[in-house]
From TrEMBL:
Origin species: Triticum aestivum
Biased composition (Basic and acidic residues): 21-30
Segments of this protein annotated with the region Disordered: 1-30
Any Pfam family: Methyltransf_25
Residue span, Methyltransferase domain: 195-268
Annotated SUPFAM superfamilies: S-adenosyl-L-methionine-dependent methyltransferases (SSF53335)
Membrane spanning residue stretches: none
Stated name of the protein: Methyltransferase domain-containing protein
Compositional bias annotation for Low complexity: 1-15
């Protein structure tokens, strides 16, 4: 995947970074679309202690000093979790109820079927992330991921009057970007038959893709077997014409055959 992105031409439009893959081999995958949704400023290269946009103000220095003091950091994490959950619930996202349902489901059996026990995780993936000590490799992170995703959409579009509206805007823009790009580069007659969603998390983005392109076969790929188990468990309850396939792998070395997808999407995945 890294190689594909490396070769691809890149244009940025309305918060979306698009990679147009031109392979030299021809065939129907010649114009596969790679669309990456990025949330913040332009990506930076090199080893930075912190992103340049994060600034170096007295307040940021104070926060960094407080965070460095472990017992205080644990308290701050607890308090900020509480705020995040309460804010989501005030916006009608039943965070605790959604989490409980996942944790009390048969997701653990699905996990055993879906995980690749031979996967080698990159170092960054083994670090604490979003206040979860095990990062994305934990049941709590997986169980809370859908509520967190909904909550982020509302924060991104504060003027939206509901969570549904915020999601329609966020996901609608992304879908439209894919369709526009596909029309522009592949033409009306080129059908989207196979879609790969890299960094699919608990499958929210994959389900949007599968619903927009119901005749296509969609694959959701993620490093976290916990997230994929939540995605797969939900999918098993739906009767989709083409059920989504879930793959536990590293997006940088998927092991999937080259040129086998018409659309490759990375939605809200840090590049
Ligand atoms: C913010 S979530 C993406 C959300 C999802 N695409 C959506 O739009 O709702 C980022 C995901 O990228 C996954 N991820 C991070 N590094 C990865 C890698 N190298 N290969 C595959 N997945 C990765 C994480 O496990 C996480 O689920």
């Amino acid at each position: 995947m890294a190689a594909i992105l490396g070769r691809a031409g890149t244009t940025a439009t309305g918060g979306f970074r698009r990679h147009h893959q031109e392979t030299s081999r021809g065939g129907r995958r010649r114009d596969a679309v790679v669309v990456a949704a990025v949330t913040g400023a332009a990506p930076q290269e090199g080893s930075l202690e912190r992103p340049a946009w994060s600034g170096e103000t007295p307040v940021s220095r104070l926060v960094a000093a407080l965070i460095a003091f472990k017992p205080l950091y644990s308290l701050m994490k607890l308090a900020s979790r509480e705020v995040i959950i309460r804010t989501a619930e005030k916006s009608n996202i039943p965070w605790r109820e959604m989490t409980r349902k996942v944790l009390e489901s048969d997701v653990y059996e699905v996990f055993e079927r879906i995980r690749d026990p031979n996967i080698i995780y990159p170092d960054y993936y083994l670090s604490p992330f979003h206040a979860y000590d095990e990062g994305n490799l934990s049941w709590l992170a997986a169980a809370e991921a859908e509520a967190a995703t909904l909550s982020i959409a509302k924060r991104a579009i504060p003027e939206a009057t509901s969570i549904e509206e915020a999601n329609q805007i966020v996901r609608g823009n992304w879908m439209n970007a894919i369709e526009e790009h596909h029309l522009k580069y592949s033409g009306e007659n080129c059908q989207i038959n196979d879609i790969l969603d890299i960094g699919c998390s608990v499958g929210v983005s994959t389900r949007y893709l599968a619903e927009r392109f119901p005749s296509a076969k969609a694959v959701g790929l993620d490093l976290s077997p916990y997230f994929l188990a939540v995605a797969a468990q939900k999918e098993e309850q739906l009767c989709r014409q083409n059920p989504i396939r879930w793959v536990n792998a590293n997006g940088e070395a998927t092991g999937l055959p080259p040129n086998s997808f018409d659309v490759v999407s990375l939605a809200y995945v840090h590049l």
